[in-house]
Amino acid sequence: MKIKRFYKNSIQSFSNAPASILWAFFFILGTVAGAAFFYLGMYYNKKKSIGIEYPKGAQTSQVVEAQNPLTALNNSRTIDLKEFNQVLNIIEENYVPAPDEKGSKKEKPLTLDQRLDYAIAGLVASTKDPFSSFFPKKEAKDFRSTVIDGELEGIGIWLSEKNNSLVVLSAVPNSPAAKSGIQAGDIILKVGDTSIIGYSADEATQIIRGKKGTPITLSIFRKSLQKEISITIIRDKITIPTLSTRVYQNVFIISMYSFTQHAYRDFASALRDYNQSNVDRLVIDLRDNPGGIVDEAIAIASIFLPVNSPIFYEYTGGNLTDATAVRSVGTPALDKKIPIYVLVNRNSASASEILALALKEYDIATIVGERTFGKGSVQQVFNTINDGIVKVTIGHWLSPKTKKSFSNIGVDPKIDFTKGDEKIIDEYDRFDENGGPLAVEKDAFLKKAISLIQKE
Question: Is 60 exceeded by the pLDDT of residue 59?
Answer without folding.
Answer: no
